[in-house]
Amino acid sequence: MPEPTREQERELYTCVIRARALDVELVRWHRQGIIPGFPPSIGHEATQVGAAAALDRTRDFVFPMYRELGLALAMGVDILGYLGNHNGDWNGGSFDPVASRFTPIQSVVGSNGPHAVGWALGQKIDGRDGVALACIGDGGTSQGDTHEAMNFAGVWKLPVVFLVSNNQWAISVPLAEQVAGGSIAARAAGYGFPGVAIDGNDLLAVRAAVMDAVERARRGEGPTLIESRIYRRGPHATSDDPGRYRTLEDERRDAGEDPVIRYRRSALERDIIDESFVAEVDSEAAVWLEGIRSYLTTLPPRGGETLFENVYAELTDDLVEQRDAWAQDARA
Amino acid sequence: MTATMRADSDGTSRTTQTLSVQQALNRALADELEADPRMLVFGEDVGVLGGVFRVTDGLQARFGAVRVFDTPLAESAILGTAVGLAIAGFRPVPEVQFDGFAYPAFDQIVSQVARYRYRSRGRLPMPITLRVPSYGGIRAPELHGESTEAFWAHVAGLKVVSPSNAHEAYHLLRASIQDPDPVIFLEPKSRYWQKSEVDLARSGGVRGARIVRPGTHLSILSWGAMVDRALRAADIAAEDGVETEVVDLRWLSPIDTATIAESVGRTRRAVVVHEAARTAGLGAEVSARITERLFDRLRAPVQRVTGYDVPTPSGALEDEQIPSVHRILLGMQRVLEYRRG
Ligand SMILES: Cc1ncc(C[n+]2csc(CCOP(=O)(O)OP(=O)(O)O)c2C)c(N)n1
C-alpha cells in the first residue's frame, strides 16, 4: 500500500484544517442567525479526510450520512452546494452528485447502506472496479437497513466498504446503550467478511485501513467493515445541549487527543509541514471562509417555481395546476 | 412503444393472443428485458422458482442469473438496492412478494425512491418499477391481501398503476418499466389466472384512465380487480335499463382527472368502488376531485362502495370486506334514487 507523498500529505493537512475551521465557523454563523442549523463534524476530521484519501475520485462513490463535511471537502464536492442542505436551500444539498461521486446528504440513519450495496452490485454487473463507501454512525448500526445491507453485501461479495464512525454517541445515547457487546467491528464475522477496529483519530491509519479495504474490494474479495473509533467533540447538532447527558469533565476524559492537533503535530514532527506552512494554511482558510460567509449571507431567496420541478421527469397535470395556482396566489 | 410481431408455430404472424394476467405480465417482463439490457428483475424467489405467482417464470433461464436474480429476504434492502442500481444507471424492476411485505420497505420507497429525483435536482432519477401482487380475494393469510394504493398515491414522486385485465397488464407494465419515474405496480392477484385477449401490438393507449364500458346514467370509477365486478354490476343494471359507464382509472397516481370529469360530467352521477378501507382511501380523493370540478352538475353526492375501516380480514370474512356485485348495485341505486331534500 503506497505511503502518501509529502505533497499529498500537505493537501490532507490543508483539508483537515479547512474542515475544522469551517465547522467552527458554521456553529458561529448559526448563532448569528446566518444558517438555521448544522451537525458539526468536530472530531471526525481525521477519519473523513483519511477515508477520502483512500478513494479514487474517478471510479469510487460515496454514500454519506449528514455529518460528512470533511469527507465532502476531501472528495472535492462543491461545498456551497453541500451547505445547501444545512442552510435550508435544498434537501440533500444542491451539488452535483454524479460529478461529485457523492450522493445527496442523507437524513435517514442507515438507509444509505442498501444504496451503496445496489451501486456496488451495478459495478459487479458492469465488470467495473469502483468501490462504494457507505458512511454509518454507531447509532446507525442499530438500524435494520444496516444489517440488511451488510448481509446483502456479504452474500454477494460486493465491493463495499462500510465505514462506521463510532463517535461514542448517538445524540444522547452512549455506545454501551446502543451496541450490545461493545464492538461494531466484531459484527462483520456474522456477515462473512472482515471487520477491523481502528484508531480513527489517526488520519494515516484510517487512510491505510480504507485503502486495504478498497484494494480488497477491487480484487473482488468483497466488503469490509471498518469501525473507526473517534469521539464526537461537539454537540450532535447546533440545537443539541450535550450538558444534559455528559459533563465537560467526561468530554475531557473520553475525547482523547484532538485529531486535528494530532495530525498537525505528526506532520510537523515528520517535517511534512513547518510553521510557515501552518500559518499559510490558516490564513488561506480564513480567506476561504470569508468567501463562504459572504455567499451564505447574500444568497438570493430561491424562486418558488423550483418547488414544482424535478418531482417527476415531466410536470404532471396536477402539478401544473398547483404551480399555476401558486403563481396566482403569489401575485394576489 | 413498439410491439413485436411474432411468428407462431403455424408460421403466421399474430399479435393477438389469449393470455392470463400472469402470462401477460410475464410476457411484458420478457419483452422489456429483451428491449433494454439495463433492466434487471429481482426479489424473493423470482429466479429459479419464477416467483410464487410464476410471474417471473422462465426469465432467469432465458436472461441469466445476472439480470434476473433472487435476493436475500429483506424488503427494505431490495428497494434500497434498487436505489443504488438506479444511481448506477440501471432500470430496476424489483418485486416484493405480497402487498403487506411492502410495509417493511416503506421507508426506502417513501424517503428514498420517491424523493431521489427531487433532492438530486433531476440528476439521479429513479426509473424503478416495483411490482407488488396486491389486494385480496384469494383467501390468503394475514398481510397477503392488503390494498395499499392510497399509501403510495399520497407520496409525491411516486406513480401508481394497477391493471384490470391481461391486455392492460401487458401494456401498463411495459409503460411503467419505460417510465422515467418510479412506479408502484399493483397486480390484482385474484385476477392472475383470468384469461382474455391481449393484442401485443396495439395498446389502445397506456396513459390515464380508460372508459371500459360507455353509459349515460351513472359512472362507476374503479381499478384493479374491482373493474370486473363493476362491469358485472353494470350488466345486471342494464337488465333494468340502467346504462352504466365504467371507468378503469389504471393510473392511481397521477389520477386522470380529465377523463373522470368528462365521464361524470356527462352521466352526472358517480360511484367509486375500491376494496381498500374507506377512510382516506382513494375514493375520497376521486370524490373530492369530482366535487371540485362538477359541483353544480352532480345530480347526487358521489357514493363510495369500499372496504370497511378494519384490518384486512381473514379468508372467512374477506367477502364481507371486498365490495360485492350486490353492494356495488346498492351503491348505484343510492345515486340513481337520490332526491334533493
Ligand atoms: C431512521 C432515523 N431515526 C432517527 C433519526 C434522528 N437522529 C438523527 S441523528 C441520530 C443519532 C445518530 O447517531 P449515529 O448514527 O451514532 O451518528 P452521529 O450523529 O453520532 O454521527 C438520530 C437518532 C434519524 N435521522 N433517522
Strand order of the largest sheet of chain A: 1-2-3-7-6
In sequence order, what are the helices and strands of chain B, one letter per element?
Answer: EEEHEHEHEHHEHEHEEEEHEEHEHEHH
- Return Rg of chain B in Å: 20 Å
How large is the share of residues in beta strands of chain A?
5-15%
Q: Could you describe the largest sheet of chain B, including whether it forms a barrel? A: 5 strands, mixed
Instruction: Specify the structural class of chain B.
Output: alpha/beta
Strand order of the largest sheet of chain B: 11-13-12-15-16
Q: Poorly predicted ranges of chain B (pLDDT <50, ≥5 residues)? A: 1-8
What is the count of DSSP helices of chain A, taking H or I runs of 4+ residues?
Answer: 13
Number-wise, the strands of chain A total: 7
Helix content of chain B: 25-40%
Structural category of chain A is: alpha/beta
Please state the average pLDDT score of chain A.
97
Terminal-residue CA separation of chain A = 65 Å
The portion of residues assigned to helices of chain A is 40-55%
Q: Which chain pair shows the most residues in contact?
A: A-B, 43 and 45 residues
Walk me through the structure.
- The complex is a heterodimer of chains A (332) and B (341).
- Chain A has 332 residues and is an alpha/beta fold.
- Chain A has 13 helices and 7 strands.
- In chain A, strands 1-2-3-7-6 form a 5-stranded parallel beta sheet, with helices on both faces. A two-stranded antiparallel ribbon of chain A has the order 4-5.
- In chain A, strand 6 (195-199), helix 9 and strand 7 (224-229) form a beta-alpha-beta unit.
- In chain A, helix 1 (6-31) runs antiparallel to helix 11 (259-269) and helix 2 packs parallel to helix 9.
- The longest helix of chain A has 26 residues, at 6-31.
- The termini of chain A are far apart.
- The mean pLDDT of chain A is 97.
- Chain B has helices spanning 21-35, 59-63, 75-87, 106-113, 116-119, 149-153, 166-178, 226-239, 257-267, 282-294, 315-321, 325-336, and strands spanning 6-7, 13-14, 16-20, 39-43, 68-70, 91-95, 129-134, 159-161, 183-188, 195-199, 210-213, 218-222, 244-248, 251-253, 270-277, 303-307.
- With 341 residues, chain B is α/β, with parallel strands linked by helices.
- Chain B starts with 5 loop residues before the first strand and ends in a 5-residue tail after the last helix.
- In chain B, the strands form 5 sheets. In chain B, strands 11-13-12-15-16 form a 5-stranded mixed beta sheet, with helices on both faces.
- Chain B is 35% helix and 21% strand.
- Chain B contains 12 helices and 16 strands.
- The chains are: A alpha/beta (332), B alpha/beta (341).
- The interface between A and B is large, with 43 and 45 residues.
- Thiamine diphosphate is lined by residues 67, 107-109, 137-140, 167, 169-171, 232, 236 of chain A.
- The site of thiamine diphosphate (TPP) has 14 residues of chain A, from strand 4.
